[in-house]
Design a protein that fits this description.
5-stranded parallel β-sheet
Length: 154
């Protein structure tokens, strides 16, 4: 059970580390890799092949023109979660390259590091009781935060 985070460039490393940290809180192993669908497509394919036989979820992190998510999804039967980092530079408009995919290509789009980790955990929770319990605990903690905030408003 492993999440393989593929980032398009090293400039995404800090965001990917946040995702990895959150994924590990669910008891899931995580691997960080760098490869670009535009510049090194063969490297992307090598990474997919390296983990294809494992119990993995691929997380793709690419901004600007996100070909990485669709490319990975089109070349694996494993789940792919696109988690593009937000960019003030483009006022968030670069997210559109993660939304529209050709037919037969369906990476899931999840924004924010914590939500990406939760999506990975929910996929693994379908088969792993320990992860399922951690997801339930995480959700309960979030509920408690809302109840506590409401009480503080009174």
């Amino acid at each position: 059970m492993k999440a393989v985070i593929i980032m398009g460039s090293k400039s995404d490393l800090d965001y990917c580390k946040k995702i990895a940290e959150k994924i590990k809180q669910f008891g899931i192993d995580c691997v960080l890799r760098i490869a670009s669908a535009h510049k090194t497509p063969e490297k992307v394919l090598e990474i997919i092949r390296e983990y294809e036989e494992d119990d993995v979820v691929f997380v793709t992190v690419a901004g600007r023109s996100n070909a990485l998510s669709g490319f990975v999804d089109a070349n694996t039967h494993k789940p792919v979660i696109a988690s593009p980092p937000y960019s003030d530079k483009f006022a968030g408009a670069d997210i559109f390259s993660s939304i529209r995919m050709p037919s037969g290509v369906a990476p899931m789009l999840v924004l924010e590091a914590e939500n990406t980790a939760l999506a990975v955990a929910k996929i693994f929770a379908m088969k792993n009781e320990m992860v399922r319990e951690k997801v339930i605990q995480f959700q309960e903690k979030k509920r408690e935060e809302i109840y506590k905030a409401d009480e503080e408003m009174r």
